[in-house]
Amino acid sequence: MSFTDTNNCSFYVNEICKGRIRKILNETDIPETNKNIVTIGMLLCQTHYNQLIFHESLKIEQAKTCQHLKYEIYLNEAKSIKKQI
Length: 85
Description:
Layout: E1 2-4, E2 21-23, E3 43-45, H1 46-63, H2 71-84
Antiparallel strand pairs: 1-2, 2-3
C-alpha cells in the first residue's frame, strides 16, 4: 500500500478526514458494494479507507454464514461462554 501526506482525500471533507492518505492500488481488494464509489488510483484518508474498504470487507465476511448444520448451536454456545467470562 502506498502512503503519502502531501495529497488530499478524494472525499475532501475537513471535518472527518484524518490520518495519512492511502492510494488505492490494483492490489487493493475493493468490496463489491463500493466498486462504484472507490476506483484504482483514488486517494483516501485513513477514515474513509476504513469506512469504504476495511469495515465494508469485514461486514461482508461476517454476513457469510457457516454451512454446518449445527452452526447456530455452536454460535449460541460461544456467545453464552463470552457472557460468563
